[in-house]
Amino acid sequence: MCSGGFAKCLGITLLPLAVVCLLCNILLFFPGGKVADKSDDITDEVFFLGGIIGSGVLMIFPALVFLGLKNNDCCGCCGNESCGKRFAMFGSIIFAAVGVVGAGYSVIVSGVAINHGPKCFINDVNVTYPFENGNYLSNHSIWDACVKPLGIVTWHLTLFSILMVASLVQIGLCLFQVINGLIGTICGDCCGGSD
Asked: What is the model's pTM?
């Protein structure tokens, strides 16, 4: 497969993952699926916008660049038509690096949030973080410490886990594009055929 065609496949895969990450981060603004009374009731890591900025917006740029590489009809440079395509493939490496940084940020934020646990009411008055250092992950019996919103621990874990897994997949796809971009830069669009 040509390196431009492979990049297009990666772009097609990255777009829905970016949308999933955006949606997960937006849903986290609604603890337990309910509208929070005030912003202090929402887990702090949600406001770091790992899914919106990191794996969402910053991932859309590489995805669109990768989609355009297949149809890239650069006019060339120095009288060499393949030079433009090689430069475009080199440029895709830079955008892939941006994607890795954005998705990496999302992975870090998600990991911290999962370890920290959700912010919830331990009684009808106090909102706090009742869990420490991920101790709730292996001990489900202490989940009852969160009185409300109902199901907040499951909500928190599910959405941040989806965000983390999707971001890890994005990192993998961007790293594939770095390799693909290097091959396209060195060999041209198709190593086995004409440039």
From this structure: 0.86
